[in-house]
Amino acid sequence: MKQPISEGRKTAFYIGTGLMIIGGLLFASVFVTAALHFGDFNDFQGTAKSSMFRAIAGMALLVVGGMVRTIGATGLAGSGVILDPSKAREDLEPYSRMAGGMVKDALDEAEINLKGKEKIMIKCRACGKLNDEDSKFCQECGKPL
Predict the structure, then answer these.
(1) How many of the other CB atoms lie within 10 Å of CB of 95?
(2) For residue 72, which of 2, 20, 17 has the smallest C-alpha distance?
């Protein structure tokens, strides 16, 4: 059963990502303005208050954006907001399927067969490459087996 991720979850993910970007820019702006006005002590209190506000607001947006993004990506139950194991499995199903597909791809690339059948291989006398049992020629050097 392939379950697509809902549009609401996608929207929450992108909104959370946007909030995190804005928060990161606000937080980084404190350091940029501090470097640009290094040694300038005119209106020091006003500049310090502005910098403190931007730093705190930036951190808050980073945290809130991260939470919204996580909820959007994994759903309410998948992120632990709602404690329902069956709903959590349903919310996390696309990620579980993806992880299983990645493991399958890695096993295929390593030529590991987990289907329970033994795979008989024939070793090439010329180069030593292991070939499938029904091969007539070596896959590496092309010599007859």
Answers:
(1) 13
(2) 17
Give the pairing type, strands 130-132 and 121-123: antiparallel
pLDDT in tens, 105-132: 777 788 777 766 677 888 999 998 999 8
Question: Quick one: how far is CA 110 from the chain centroid?
Answer: 23
Separation between Cα atoms, residue 131 and residue 115, nearest integer Å: 19
- For the four alpha carbons of 105, 106, 107 and 111, in that order, the dihedral sign comes to positive
Alpha carbon distance 2, 137 (integer Å):
41
pTM, to two decimals: 0.60
Q: What is the pLDDT of residues 32-86, one digit of tens each?
A: 988 888 887 787 788 889 899 999 999 999 999 999 999 998 888 888 888 888 8
State the chain's maximal CA–CA distance in angstroms: 86
Domain boundaries, the chain: 7-109, 117-145
Q: Tell me the one-letter amino acid at 128.
A: G
